[in-house]
Amino acid sequence: MKYKEFIVRLERGKIAQAYLFEGKENYLKEEALQKLKEKIIPSSYTNFNYEIFSGENTSSAEIIESLYILPFNSKYRLVVVKEVDKLKEKDREILRKYLENPVSTTCLVCVGEEFDKRKKFYRTYLKEGEVVSFYPLWNNEVIEWIKQRVEREGKKISSRAILYLKDKIGNDLYSLSKEIEKLVIFVHPERTIREEDVRELTREIKGRGVFDLTRAFREKNLLLSLSILSELLERGEEPLRIHSLLAREIRTLLRIKEKGVNISSQKASSLIFGSRGYYNFYTDIASEYLKASKDFSIPELIKDYEYLVKTEVSIKRGKEEAKSAMEKLILALLTPSINSPEK
Which residues, at least 6 apart from 97, have a Cβ–Cβ distance to it below 8 Å? Predict the structure, then answer.
């Protein structure tokens, strides 16, 4: 069966005793494993009921021992053998014999790329378990995948943005997923990712971008912030766009500071990205904010925000040239002694 059919069966609660994941689309394999784990193992007991082995440096004895362990506060244990195609032939044969009489409370997933369909191991899987094939998606499937991936993040994406993203990044799902994660943060709190958002972000692949600037600001690195700002402005980045992202940084840091020192990364994620489920990508970013917030005081952040407002007014009223105003802004934010702009 293919990935889509596997997901449909999983959602209907049809769990096989053993799966063989074959093919070269590794991103979808990881996604399928995650969905299977979430479906059959309570999150509180993952450490007790989930074990991963590598076929390259594991013996069948270790795997078999794990397969016979009873689950803890769960209906199933999930045992995954990655690179099973690198498992020694004698060990693979022992694993094949296990398939003929598997433990009812264990779900075994063997993962590899290519298997000889004529051999007993593959034929036994066809008879006793389920073979799931993961191959690169066709162009139209990639377009649908991008749309669904963005919707899973609680956002929408325009058709033109999808086509432009696919044209720039290609069909590699790992790379597309990373760019989508960046786009979700880039447009927040806006709900829709537009073509111009994709153009702006993918342009940064060739050099340092706005995320590098906001990170340098959080780290209070003045020289690096000025260097990145200069690079962005030379590339034609809109000064007020940079301004708005810095303003968002300060608002985010303020919200975190107001919650106190004991806030968790999950709670910080909800403050930054809104109510949703969070992947490690988001909690890792939230942890960066938590760490950075310790170097800022609430009075300092309030003063920084006031300076941002004055700078925006100064630019929009034509009192200052935008590029020089942004340079003065960075200096003022990271060098508190510098005077604020005139009212």
Answer: none
pLDDT of residue 267: 79
User: Per residue in 243-273, pLDDT tens?
Assistant: 988 998 999 899 898 887 677 877 777 777 6
Structure confidence by residue, pLDDT tens digits, 274-331? 655 545 666 777 888 888 888 999 999 999 999 999 999 999 988 999 999 999 999 9
Average pLDDT over residues 66-77: 95
**CATH of the domain spanning 3-133:** 3.40.50.300
The Cα–Cα gap between 52 and 78 comes to 9
Q: What percentage of the chain carries pLDDT values higher than 90? A: 58
Distance CA 141, CA 319 (A): 51
139-205 adopts what CATH topology? Helicase, Ruva Protein; domain 3 (1.10.8)
Answer for the pair 282, 153: CB distance below 8 angstroms, yes or no.
Answer: no
Question: Which residues lie across from 111 on neighbouring strands?
Answer: 21
* Helix (H), strand (E) at residue 306: helix 298-316
Rounded to 5°, the CA angle 278-284-287 comes to 110
Ranges of each domain in the chain:
3-133, 139-205, 210-334
The tens digit of pLDDT for each residue in 192-251 reads 999 888 987 877 555 677 878 988 999 999 999 999 999 889 888 889 889 988 998 999
Q: Residue 336 in contact with residue 343, Cβ under 8 Å?
A: no
Return the CATH number of 210-334, one of 3.90.550.10, 1.20.272.10, 2.30.40.10, 3.40.50.11930: 1.20.272.10
